[in-house]
Amino acid sequence: MYTKLCRTLARVCMWLGIFGLVAVICAVSWQVFGRYVMNNTPTWAESLALLLVLYVTMFGVAVGVRDAGHIGLESFLVLAPDWLRLKMEYLIHFLVLIFGATMAWNCASLAESVWDYRLPTLWISEGWKYVPAAISGVLIVMFSIEHIIALAQGREVEPAWS
C-alpha cells in the first residue's frame, strides 16, 4: 500500500516535471519573441521560467531518490561483504532521510519567513520560491522510508515507470 502511494506520488512528480518543462519552454519562447520580434520584453517571463525551473528540479530530485538515481557510494557497497553491505544501505537511506527532513523543515521555515514579500514581476509571494524544496524534502523522507522498508523485506523498490 505504501509503495503504491509512493509510486503514484513519483509519477505525479514526473508528470508535473514534464508540464513544468513545457511551461519553461513556453515562457522563454515568449520572452525571446517579445524581445526580438515585438521589441517589448515581457519582464515576467524570466521570473516565471526561473520559478518553474525550481519546481521541475526539486520534483526531479525527489523522484531520483525514489528510483535510486541519486549519488551513491556504489563502489564501496560492491566491495563490502554482504553483512556490511546491508548495514551501509540502511545508513545511506537513513542519511538521505535526515537530509530530506532537514531540507523540508528549513525550506518551509524560510518560505514562511518571506511569505509577506512579493516577487515584483510576478506579483506572487516570494515564499513560492521555497515551497518546491519543502515539498521535495517531504517526498525524499517518504521515499527513503520506502527504501528502508524494502530493505527490511529483502526486496528493491521498483522505478515509478515499471
UniProtKB/TrEMBL annotation:
GO cellular component: plasma membrane
Highest taxon above the source species: Bacteria
Domain Tripartite ATP-independent periplasmic transporters DctQ component: start-end pairs: 25-153
Alphabetized GO MF terms: transmembrane transporter activity
Main location: membrane
Family membership: Belongs to the TRAP transporter small permease family.
The protein's name in its UniProt record: TRAP transporter small permease protein
Organism: Variovorax guangxiensis
